[in-house]
Amino acid sequence: MAHLVQQPLVMACEGWDSYRLLDSGAGRKWEAFGPHSFIRPEPQAMWQPRMEEWPAAGEFIPGSDEDGGGRWSFTADLPDDGWPLAWDEVRFTARPTPFRHLQFFPDMAPVWEWMRGQLDGMTEAETLNLFGYTGLGSLALSRHGKVTHVDASKKSVAQARENAALSEMEDRPIRWLVDDAAKFAAREVRRGRRYDGIILDPPKFGRGPDGEVWRLEEHLPGLIADCAKLLDADSRFLFLTVYAVRMSSLAIAGLLQEALAHLPGQIEHGDLAVREDSEGGRLLPTAIFARWSNPG
Predict the structure, then answer these.
(1) Is 134 part of a structural domain of the chain?
(2) CA-CA 20 to 30 A from 138: which of 41, 46, 75, 115?
């Protein structure tokens, strides 16, 4: 039976050449994405900024609805097609989106490293990336074997394919699927499939390609139950991240503990965070996570 570690952890992104958290505070954050910097809202930055001025190419101005909305205000010209960035050997395109991010989530960098560590020494692993977005996690995992990448957005999957081409990884064994994540996982269970690792990054609310409605609190338990059936005692990991919800990491860890009771290993939980790029840089929390690992 998987053991639940109750003490929470912090998985911190320390920044790298293509991404830096320059400063944060007063409900905002100032970040560098390669040659361009941006200001975005961040409610968890409750302290005061360390710098008086934040010169930036653009700022996202949030709408009045706390669940989303808003617009970008730009002070500099940006490439229409975005600009190339890199994490390790993974290459990808960054550009501002209407959803306030830039087509990738930098706080996931330590997660990509951790998953690779769980698959260390494996070259024929089979992993599943649900809600895979623009494919950085799938490309990072592809050095260890086959990856099935699932996202409901045709546009996101197309961008993931472009990132694969930019990374010169078009020949990697990745299946790019436009599909509803929950329906796909249920079909995989019926097919008797199994995976060495699963990563899930579900939204708070979303719609599938055929209009399927996803509500995190309502549908996550069923999806986790199906994912548990796709793992066995030889599998290595499951990683779940949750953003922008009023729940604790201990709650989603308890969900994993219930679903994975039939497996060995351990379950851990905590916060994802990004560290400011300065001496004694503060940690800015961005999401909660729960993870199951099985060293075998």
Answers:
(1) yes
(2) 41
Taking residue 138's Cβ as centre, other Cβ atoms within 10 Å add up to 28
Structure-block tokens of residue 37: 């910097």
How far is C-alpha 219 from the chain's CA centre?
A: 18
pTM, full prediction: 0.95
Amino acid at position 114, single letter: W
Tens digits of residue pLDDT in 52-89: 999 999 999 998 665 568 999 999 999 999 999 999 99
What pLDDT, on a 0 to 100 scale, did the predictor assign at position 39?
98
Q: Which residues of the chain have pLDDT under 70?
A: 64-68
Taking the C-alpha atoms of residue 73 and residue 100, their distance in angstroms, rounded to an integer, is 11
C-alpha–C-alpha distance, residues 45 and 271, integer Å: 14
The reply to whether 200 falls in a domain is yes
Domain count, the chain: 1
Burial code (b: 16+ CB inside 10 Å, e: under 16) for 231-259 equals beeebbbbbbbbbebeeebeebbebbbeb
C-alpha distance from residue 51 to each of 61, 215, 274, 283 (Å): 20, 39, 18, 16
- Residue 255: which domain range? 3-15+104-293
**Residue 216: its pLDDT value, please?**
86
